[in-house]
Amino acid sequence: MIQWCRYRALFHMKRSLIRLEYIRHEPTSPVESEPEMRNKIQHAVTEPSEQSQVIAICLLAGKIMLQSGGETYRVEDTMKRMAAALGLPHSHSYVVPTGIFFSVDATEPAKLIRISERTTDLDKVSEVNAVSRRIGQGQLKVQEAHDLLLEIERKPSGYSYAVQLSAAALSSACFTIMFGGGWGDFLPALICGGIGYAAVILFHRWVRVKFFAELTASFVIGMLAFFLVYVGAGFERDKIIIGSVMPLVPGLLITNAVRDLMAGHLVSGLSKGAEAFLTAFAIGTGIAVVFSLLM
Amino acid sequence: MLHFIGQALTSFVASAAFGIIFNAPRRMLLHGGFVGMIGWIIYLVLEYAADAVPATLAATIAVGVISQLFSRMFRAPVIIFSVAGIIPLVPGGLAYNAMRSFVQNDYSAAMGMAAKALMLSGAIAVGLVLSEVLNQLIQSISRSARVKSTTK
Fold first, then answer.
1. Crossing angle, helix B92-103 and helix A266-294, to 10 degrees?
2. Where are the domains of chain A?
3. Is B93 at the interface with chain A, CB within 8 A?
4. Least confident of A267-281, B52-66, B133-147
5. Shortest CB distance from A288 goes to which of B6, B93, B103?
6. In this complex, how many residue pairs, one in chain A and one in chain B, have their CB atoms less than 8 Å apart?
7. CB-closest option in A157, A170, A179 to B23
8. Confidence check: pLDDT of A217 > 90
9. Contact: A291, B90; criterion CB under 8 Å
10. CB-side neighbour CA atoms (13 Å) of A111
11. Which of A26, A185, A225, A269 is the S-S candidate for A181 at Cβ 3.0 to 4.6 Å?
């Protein structure tokens, strides 16, 4: 008996050693770009083993959802359901806003994906959801599902920048009316909101710091609102500013943070709440700077 | 009356436009706008009748329940519908006024407004929790009804 145990232990050690070797020799660069990552996932799937293919699909689905603004509990739930439907019933997934851990059983090593860039694309969340539902009903083969997910990941956003900008401008103008502004402030808020949203996109492209982009954009909005009222184009400065700032308000983050906290994902909920607070703080600071400069 | 129609219209457009900002699927934009409109009208009426905090609470619950209903009807994630509805309820105006008072060294007024803004955010959070609980109740009731009807 003891001998057998020793043999098993030795065997396991050997296996893990081999694995370590494998990990060490894998060519990895510290900063991995998107296409490289995609290639790697594709590469992993072309491996013969069915299990690794399923794992790759689950990771890909989770990655798309998390990058597109899905709630943490939804990502975990979707990954587990997909794995169960494809024949791996005892999987575990642990999702935080910056990464995904996924393991299929106790003996296999867990897989990890790092999420560095998060945007909001609810269309992708809903499409991955649809794919997972079809897998659950048994309508999709593994390879088909993988192709579909890759297609979803590559798909550009459904609306062009121009459309999004005009949507932001329109919603700013509408919010100005909703918060008690007169119809005379509709047009100034439209201009302010549009330029503010354009500013946040532009600054975020130049400087990869979200906090700074939001701060500068709200500064621009404040300056513009002061200018428009000074020139005589707008009437109520406060209403214009409040309406124009609305597209920057972290509404999705707040909702997701509360839902995650409720579902028991304390780490994700708190970190999303912190991100929302930071964004709100950036907007407030930008406006406060304008006030202290001009009043 | 005209005021109400204007508010309903603007809240519908604003919520639908937020759907575009968040890249919601095209065929779901109008639904999101509808949820936002209902939430905002409930908020307006109750704020006029009572206070902003219960109004926000009731509106958030309504938004949550309707979004869950839509999500099951149209087989799409809940956030597509709920996000646009929640955003008008976020106390942006109060937070702004509080910040402005802080900058102008009027701390007593600023603290009052900041506390109110915090209360409103809390109301949103509680409303989301309550709507989730309500939905789970509805779901379990409908499920047990279904089980009963199949066993009969």
1. 50
2. 14-154, 161-294
3. yes
4. B133-147
5. B103
6. 145
7. A157
8. yes
9. no
10. 23
11. A185
| Tokens encoding B60 | 């958030």
How far apart are the C-alpha atoms of B16 and A67, rounded to whole Å? 22
Per residue in B5-54, pLDDT (tens digit) is: 888 999 999 999 988 988 888 888 899 999 999 999 999 999 888 888 99
AA identity, residue B131: S
Write the residue in A175, A197, A245 that is nearest to B14 by C-beta.
A175
Residue of B nearest to A282 (CA): B99
B91 touches chain A (CB under 8 A): no
Mutation to test the A interface, candidates B11, B38, B103, B135, most A Cβ within 10 Å: B103
Higher pLDDT, A88 or A202: A202
Q: Which residues of A touch B64 (CB under 8 A)?
A: none
Task: Find the mean pLDDT for residues A108-117.
Answer: 85
CA nearest neighbour of A279 among A224, A221, A212, A225: A212
B75 φψ region: left (φ > 0), alpha (ψ -120 to 50), beta (else): left
Its ipTM equals: 0.86
Q: How far apart are the CA of B73 and the nearest CA of chain A, in angstroms?
A: 14
Full strand arrangement of the beta sheet holding A92-96: A92-96, A99-103, A111-114
**Residue B149 vs residue A213, higher pLDDT:** A213
Distances from the Cα of A247 to the Cαs of A70, A78, A174, A243, A258, in angstroms?
Answer: 19, 29, 11, 8, 20
Residue-wise pLDDT tens digits, A24-49? 444 444 444 555 555 544 444 444 47
Measured between CB atoms, does B132 come within 8 Å of chain A? Answer: yes
Check if B40 contacts A (Cβ < 8 Å): yes
Nearest Cβ partner of A126 from B7, B13, B80? B80
Count CB-CB contacts under 10 A for residue A151.
Answer: 11
Provide the whole-model pTM.
Answer: 0.78
Q: What string of DSSP letters covers B95-143?
A: HHHHHHHHHTT-HHHHHHHHHHHHHHHHHHHHHHHHHHHHHHHHHHHHH
User: A280 to chain B: which residues are within 8 Å by CB?
Assistant: 95
Give me the count of residues in chain B: 152
Taking residue A39's Cβ as centre, other Cβ atoms within 10 Å add up to 11
Q: B28 CB near a chain A CB, below 8 Å?
A: yes
The SS3 assignment for A270 reads helix
CA–CA separation, A87 and A71 (whole Å): 25
